[in-house]
């Protein structure tokens, strides 16, 4: 999985006034959990654009001015309900020897036979929950729809996994090809025409 670097500074004070001052200066208060002690730090708000405002997922390399470095994932984020500005971010420190659970996007590949015949593709799951060691976390999960005929469903059991586990029931539908209204109407008209032709032959 790709990594994004966030550079920040450890916070000496975590009180309300210090937090407000940090936000007024364009900084985002953050906390890193998962280690021996929580690490409080601040980073520029613009540093989070590539991490927060994207459908992709990344691990995070937290580099502090003190020289301390951490590998982490974004765990929780709070936005201002009025301005949508980032108020606070929680990170979770990664251990290279411990598995982690994350949601990663689904990437559709292939050309569905059903779609080419006039069906409509529906992506039921845009993200899937995976569990893996940090080094094995995928950037995305591939859903190959090539063999999907009209009315078919792609179940999670057909999704290939490589050094990671999918944490969903076997009956989870990832994608399906529905019969479009146009295709349904065409089929009904064809059936009527065939029935009429048979009636004339009699």
Automatic annotation (TrEMBL):
Residues 99-179 form the Large ribosomal subunit protein bL25 beta domain. GO terms for cellular component: cytosolic large ribosomal subunit. Coiled coil: none annotated. CDD domains: Ribosomal_L25_TL5_CTC. One of its GO terms (biological process) is translation. GO terms for molecular function: 5S rRNA binding; structural constituent of ribosome. Residues 6-91 form the Large ribosomal subunit protein bL25 L25 domain. Keywords: Ribonucleoprotein, Ribosomal protein, RNA-binding, rRNA-binding. InterPro entries: Rbsml_bL25/Gln-tRNA_synth_N, Ribosomal_bL25/Gln-tRNA_synth, Ribosomal_bL25_b-dom, Ribosomal_bL25_C, Ribosomal_bL25_long, Ribosomal_L25_dom, Ribosomal_uL5_bac-type. Part of the 50S ribosomal subunit; part of the 5S rRNA/L5/L18/L25 subcomplex. Contacts the 5S rRNA. Binds to the 5S rRNA independently of L5 and L18. Belongs to the bacterial ribosomal protein bL25 family. CTC subfamily. This is Large ribosomal subunit protein bL25. The lineage of its organism: Bacteria, Pseudomonadati, Bacteroidota, Flavobacteriia, Flavobacteriales. The gene is rplY.
